[in-house]
Write a structure and sequence with these properties.
Oligomer: single chain
Radius of gyration: 22 Å
Number of strands: 7
CATH topology of the largest domain: Ribosomal Protein L30, Chain: A
Low-confidence stretches: none
Strand content: 5-15%
Number of helices: 10
CATH architecture of the largest domain: 2-Layer Sandwich
Mean pLDDT: 80
Shape: globular
Strand order of the largest sheet: 6-2-1-3-7
Largest sheet: 5 strands, mixed
Length: 248
C-alpha cells in the first residue's frame, strides 16, 4: 500500500500555465519594488522643498479662484440631459495643469479616478458623470471613443486589479477570477462590456486601472478656453478619437 502511494503521480500542470504564473509573480514583485522606490523618492523630494510665505498665499488664492470658477461653470452652463446623448460611453483624460488644486476639485477628480496627469478612464454618460466633468472642465478633456480605440486602449495599455494587486491583461485566468461572477471571463469580454456599456460596465470599468497615456508631440495645456474655442480642455465629442490615436 505504501509503495502504491509513493508511486502516485503528481497532478499534471501545463508548462504554459506554470510560465504564466511565474511571469505574473515576477511582475507583481517588480511592481511592489517600483512603488516602494517611488514612495522613497516622494519623501526625499518633500524634505527638500522649501516654500516662501508668499508662495502659500498665491497657492491659496489660486485654489479659491478655481473653486469659484467651478461653481460658476455649473451655474451658467446648461448641461444636456444624459438621455439626449446618443453615445453612452465616454473616455476622460486628465490634462496637464497646476498641481495646487482646491480640495473640492481634487475630490471630484478622485471620484473620476483621474488623479494623475495623462491618465484616462472609461465612464458611462450619466448625468452625475457629466456634471462632474463639467465641474472640473479645465483639468480634463473627454469625448466619445469609437470601438477601434476602445479595443486598442484595452489591448495595448490595459491593466487590472485582482486581490488589490495590479497586473497586465495577459492572463484570461486572472480576468475570470476577478470578473467571472459577472460573466466576463476573457479580454474579449472586457472589450465587449466596455464598448457596449453592458449590464456589468461599472464592475468592469472599476476593474480596469486608469490608462497611462503617452505625451503627445504637442503638449496638452490646461488652457482656460475649452476645446470648441481652440483650447485643449472640455468636451471633444467624436474628436477625442483623433487625440487617442496620438496618446495610445
Amino acid at each position: 500500500m505504501a509503495e502504491e502511494e509513493g508511486t502516485q503521480q503528481l497532478p499534471f500542470v501545463r508548462e504554459t500555465v506554470l510560465k504564466k504564473r511565474k511571469d505574473n509573480e515576477e511582475w507583481a514583485t517588480k511592481n511592489r519594488e517600483r512603488k516602494a522606490a517611488k514612495r522613497q523618492r516622494r519623501r526625499h523630494d518633500a524634505k527638500g522643498a522649501i516654500k516662501r510665505p508668499e508662495d502659500f498665499v498665491k497657492e491659496f488664492r489660486n485654489k479659491e479662484l478655481d473653486f469659484l470658477r467651478m461653481r460658476m461653470r455649473l451655474k451658467v452652463r446648461k448641461l444636456r440631459p444624459a438621455e439626449a446623448i446618443d453615445a453612452k460611453l465616454l473616455f476622460a483624460i486628465r490634462i496637464p495643469g497646476t498641481a495646487d488644486l482646491h480640495p473640492q476639485i481634487r475630490k471630484i477628480l478622485a471620484r473620476l479616478r483621474l488623479t494623475q496627469v495623462l491618465t484616462g478612464v472609461f465612464l458611462k454618460a450619466t448625468e452625475a458623470n457629466l456634471k462632474r466633468l463639467a465641474a472640473v472642465g479645465p483639468f480634463v478633456t473627454y469625448g466619445f471613443p469609437n470601438l477601434k480605440n476602445v479595443k486598442e486602449l484595452i489591448y495595448k495599455k490595459g491593466r487590472g486589479y485582482f486581490d488589490k494587486e495590479p497586473f497586465p491583461l495577459t492572463s484570461n485566468d486572472l480576468i475570470e477570477k476577478a470578473l467571472g461572477e459577472h460573466g466576463v471571463i476573457c479580454l474579449e469580454d472586457v472589450v465587449h462590456e466596455i464598448s457596449t456599456v453592458g449590464p456589468h460596465f461599472r464592475e468592469t470599468a472599476s476593474f480596469l486601472m486608469p490608462f497611462k497615456l503617452k505625451c503627445p508631440e504637442r503638449r496638452l495645456q490646461m488652457k482656460k478656453k475649452p476645446f470648441k474655442d481652440g483650447g485643449d480642455s472640455g468636451n471633444r465629442g467624436d474628436k477625442i478619437n483623433e487625440l487617442l490615436e496620438k496618446l495610445n
